[in-house]
What we know:
The chain is mainly α. It is about 75% helix and about 0% strand. The chain folds into two domains: about 1-140, no CATH class; about 140-220, no CATH class.
Amino acid sequence: MMNKDYILRLAEKFGRALAIILRLREYNQYEEALIYIDDLFVQSVGLTSRFINSLSEDMLLQTFSPLGILNVEACLWTATLLKAEGEIYQDQGNNDESYYRYIKSLYLFLAVLLQEQPDNVPEQTQQVTELLEKLGSYELSNTVKLKLFAYYEHLGQYAKAEDTLFELLESGPVTPTLLGKGQDFYARLLAKSESDLANGNLAKEEVREGQEQLQRFARQDE
Length: 222
């Protein structure tokens, strides 16, 4: 978990970089902004924008997780700069390029936030909210939805987590791994108090109903 002083130092660095990018965008200096971002990628994580954008979300996360330990600073720099790139392409009406950057940015932000207490990283939580709004008209991949499912539970937004779980089940494939995640999710919810569940917009009876629906998916898969 990151301490608050570290988060503040990172936020200051991000803020300075984003202020320059925003100024270039305001003057329609898109190429200059993209060159600046590429330079920041090389300085901060030692990789070019082209290489980063050639990797899948999972491969990116593995790249920033040597020995299985997430390099949080590299991950946050990359997520922040990918979002900034996406906004530049969106300014230019290139929605395909912006979409791929937003998806990767969202995935990396979620990976970091799943390791943090939400109150500890309000700025990054806000970035996720903004990215979900930008991607609202798109169908998210199952890879991203799995992270989102875990993220909503982490926030205590249990109804949203359940909705995301059933989106995954309905879009398929219904794998043993997904069913196991669902069963574990409902076991954790049933161990919570009524008030905790209510704060997450669920009631105990709704949890039991969801658990029964999950079992129906399991039986269909047999």
